[in-house]
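Thread: "does anyone have the structure for this chain?"

Original post by V.I.:
We have the sequence but no experimental structure in hand. Need at least a predicted one for the grant figures.
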Amino acid sequence: MSSPTATNGGKTCRFPLSGAAATAPRLQIVSGRTSRQHAPGKPAVNLSSLFIQLVELQQRFGAQILTLEQGIQQQRRELVTTLGRLPEMTKKINWLIAGFYEQGRKEATLRERVGRQEAAMLEVSKSVRSLCETQARWKDIRDQLADVLAQARSIQTVAPLDPASSSVDANRPTPLS
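Reply from O.Q.:
Generated one for you, C-alpha cells below.
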C-alpha cells in the first residue's frame, strides 16, 4: 500500500496511512490548474462565452427595466392628467347630484299636485254623477207630470161640462184651471 500524496507548487508530499484509512478510497490533491485540464466529464467553460451570456442577460434585463420605467412614466402622466381633471369632474358630479335632488323635489311637488287634482276630480265626478241622477229624477217627474196633464186634458175633452146645463157649482175649480 502506498500512502497518499499531495502536490503543492511542484513538491509532492506523502502521508502514511494506517488501518481503515489504508483501505478507504484514495483522494489525490492536485493543483487547481491540473484539475481543470485533466478532469474528465466536466464541460470546458469558455470564459468569453460566459461573459457574452452575462452581457446578453444584462441587456435583456436592462431593456425590461427600461420598458417598465416607460410604462410607469406613462401611467404617471395619465394620473397627473386625471388628477388635473379631478376638480372639474367633482364640479360636474356635484352639479348632477344637485340636479337629481332638484328634479326629485319637483317630482314630489308634481305628485302632490296631481294627487290634489285627482281628489278634486273625484269630487267633481261625484257631483256630476249626483247632478245626472237628480236630472234623471226631475226628467222622470216631468214625464210623470206631462202624463198626468195629458190624462187630465183627455178627461176634460171627453166630457166637457157646460155650466148652464150642469148642476156643478160655478165657483168650484175644475181640475186643470
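V.I.: this helps a lot. The mean pLDDT is 79.
O.Q.: and The radius of gyration is 64 Å.
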